[in-house]
Amino acid sequence: MSAKPQSAFFIFLGDFSRLHRTEYNSYPVFTAVASDAWRKLDDNTKKNYEKLSRLQLQEYKIRQNVLIY
């Protein structure tokens, strides 16, 4: 079975983690900082993550043999 698509925030979180994870000693602190960074993202950057999320969803539906309209 194929992996389910990620939300825009979780795609961002993956990128943020690769850049900043070692800066924080605990996961709750890391996620709080990442959430704050997500809220402060400019609209164009956030739209890019949303587009990636939609593309993942389309690919997922294709893999699941679901017709996309």
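The above is record 1. Record 2 follows with the same two-line structure.
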Amino acid sequence: MDKDKIKELYLNTSKHSNYQILPQKIAELIDIPDNKIISRFEKERLAFIKSKVNFIGKKVLDIGGNSGYFSFEALDLGANSVTHIEGNTEHSDFVKNMALLTDSNINTINTYFDFNEILKDEYFDIVFNLNVIHHLGDDFGDQKISKEKALQTMSETFKYFENRCGTMIFQMGFCWKGDRNELLFENGTKLEMIDFIKNAVAENWDISSIGIAESDNEKTVYNDLSPENIQRNDELGEFRNRPIFILKYRK
């Protein structure tokens, strides 16, 4: 596929289109205008992640990988291979063709990850599970599930990766199915989310780090959790209030 057709795949409109920026070398390769890309603070999140996680020689899984920012960056950080799973066909095709164009070791799978049977027998050193599970009942799973049952099911998704993962990099939203009128936690606070994750992973995982977004001279930086930054900061908006969890499986 030529560059113009790959560019069209990225620019096509969908629910989660242009949800990630592209690595600079790829954006330049297919000439994507900056005003067509909506940043979700990928560079800032990656800066925190790579300060905590060693990717060299690792086998990586990127769940709900969208247009592949974290997949391609993982390879640039030394990962041996990446499996990119994305339910949106255009995003998946974009990553597949861009991987071919750049000779990147990325295996693309076009499906929504249901934390059930997919890749059940494979082990991954590192899993990106970023901003996926709050779409349960929407992008994947039972469409008629109640919010209470959905929360229970979300907490059980970590069980899927027991003995199948060394490190998980995790984020989730405060709103169920992306609906700002459906808070998953009563007060929508970081503390509530942190407690939820602590309870969900207590049996088999350790939380090695929690990254919190802060504003520093009008720039966004993710710092380690502290008594000062645990409070919700509405000036940052909903997305930047989502903590980044670095989880280590307790073998």
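The mean pLDDT is 90.
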